[in-house]
Design goal:
With 223 residues, the protein is of the alpha/beta class. The protein has helices at 3-7, 51-54, 134-137, 147-156, 171-178, and strands at 23-25, 44-49, 58-62, 70-72, 94-100, 110-111, 123-127, 144-145, 160-163, 183-186, 200-206, 214-222. The chain has one domain (21-30, 65-222): Putative cyclase (Glucose Oxidase, domain 1), CATH 3.50.30. Helix 4 (147-156) runs parallel beside helix 5 (171-178).
Amino acid sequence: MNINLILAPIRGDRLLNLENPTLIDLSLDIYTGMPYYPGDPQPSVEQYRHVSVDGVSLKRLALGTHSGTHIDAPAHFIANGKTIDKLHPLAACGYAKTIDVSGSLSTRMVVTDGDITRRSEDVLLVYTSYYAMRERAQSGVFPTLSKRFAEGLVEAGYKCVGIDSPTVGDPEVHKTLLGSGIIIVENLSNRLVEVVSKKAYFICLPIRVMDGDGAPARALAIM
């Protein structure tokens, strides 16, 4: 894809240094033993061919459509919803507002409040600090959005929401967002903290999986 197509909306933005931009990679590494959502396929990366034997190195990847940093397509929860290959390539791209809710999670690790006031931003990124503490990242307890919070995003008119957690919420939260056309990005890395309260352009491009309910993706913030 032509990079100019991605950067066109921000070409004239003097608050973003496009001559020497700061790029924050918000993607998780994919490797054998990486964290994965309970019940999902366990990801693995295996050596399939070796330079010393075959003259070439080649690895085999085994992933679910929701492994690592990924995008949820509407088809994940909505009957006859759009699949990942039917979404516009830039469906999860746009100016982003990043909020820090790490200090205001409820005892049930639910995000119930936060400044979701929308100005010109299309994307809301939610920093929970989930991956900052490895022991918490292995506990099986994930920060999630409340249904009311999700409804607030719909009312505000966002087109995409991203979170540094394996899941944005329970089925009702997914249905509220995806059913209203809001694309979901899950499993952003802890580097999201570097974007909090800063002006950024968010880029998240999924692998084109035919009829996919989601797909692993590379997520970046340009500042």
